[in-house]
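Major facilitator superfamily (MFS) profile domain-containing protein
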Amino acid sequence: MTEIQTFNLQEKKVDDDSINSNERDLFEYDQENNSSNDLSSDDKSYSDDDLTIVEGSDYALGRKVHLINNALDEIGFTWYHAQLFCIAGFGYSVDSQMAMIQSAVKTYVDYQMKGGGYPVATEIYFGGLILGSILFGFGADLIGRKLAFNSSLLLSATFGFFTGGTSSYAMYSIFMFLSTVSAGGNLATDVAVFMEYLPSKYQYLNTSMAAWWGVGQTIASLISWAFIPNNSCSSAENCHSSINRGWRYCWYTNSGIVMGAALIRLFVLQLDETPKFLVSTGRDKEAYETIMKISRKYNRPCSLTLEQLLECGEIEPTYYDPKKYTTFKNALKELWKTTLVNIKILFSKKVVIRSTILIMFSWLFIGISYSVFYNFLYIYIASHGGSTGSTPYLVYRNSTIANFVGIFGPILGGYLILIPKVGRRGTMIFGSLAGMAILFGYTTVRTPSGDAGFGAATYFFINIYYACLYAYTPEVFPTKARTTGVALCLVADRISSAFAPVTYWYGEKSGSSVPIWVCGAIIGCLSIFAFFMPFEPGKGKRSV
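Predicted structure tokens:
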């Protein structure tokens, strides 16, 4: 008996003492639905294939999602999905590129405009990520995935060009913040969009898609390696723009790459709104037409009919409908009301509450440990007699090697989740424990070659965990509140990451090894969270 098995009251009598806490929640859920819906056995069987428990009490929506999953499975994997894998995956790439570029140019921007002191721009960067996660993440559940998906990269690239052309620290911080807001919101929608189109047989690609995270880091490292060493000041003394243009070239080049991806999204892929979002907002006809469009374009069979969707009944009217509101004030009021409803959905049942809390704490812990470690590590090594690279060339070379190796962590993660006895939770446990061991070992590094080796291993194993967590998070969140849930997780991650500059600032003076060991221990604790997560979508269960 699995944790996510539901029980048919008309067919089974369950001994109360034999039900664990998770199964009891699922039992109560089915009891509520059976008592309020006079359905045949076949009608109720949809919950045997899908994680519909997370949809709360909206039984009609659960049935519609089941039909859409059947239709997507019948159509199978197409060239459209392959394109979406690359274009949505590039959203991962942009998020990591922004982090790496900002980190790489920070010192040289300070040399030219600020002269040193507390890393204010880094805190502003995290502030942009937090705001972007809220605006785009919540917005994607309110007004649709398509708008957030198509606009985020375009806005990020546009403001990125302006960032590279600034001549004061204040203007640099403002435009970097605006660019980061857009990039930060992008990540909340990418994996949700891809997952809501993906046939269940290929759900492992949700995890493997995080390989694009490593691609983005590698791109950013190569850009920095190309421009920083030979086009930058060595100190804040006499650091004029004419001899310190490397950081500008980094922003221009990165923004150009992001703009290229944004234009591909707009003019090549031409994404339609996802069918699952459409049915969650009462637009069954549009959802049906979107699925049939893919079926006709790639000559794939699809037996879904509009009548089948309509026969499922009306969903609960808890979604935002802009057509109902004629004034801006009323629209804002309804947006706020609907957002609160979506948040409540994430805490609607005991088992769902448990899942939501464990996932959010996982994001909180990985955010603070990952960011603090990489900001503090080189300070610790230098203070204990080591040198991981006395020149910018060696620093960026090692970074490029490590990030390139990190690409293959999510690929291995995608394979591991297919192993029945491992699954998503087992993969996260393995990734977190292996990452902890490597991080502890990293404290022994004293040479450039050691830095390159341990850096590559660290990125590889931690990216296994990161990739699986990124994919698992939207898989187990309800359809109506999917990107809201992802947004809350990203906010938790980025609030905790904002403590990295504080550690950097004080760690630079103390050189203590305590932050490194604490971060390693926190990453190890993630395995405990993964062990107690209640859902395992891959074991005969399709995500909603």
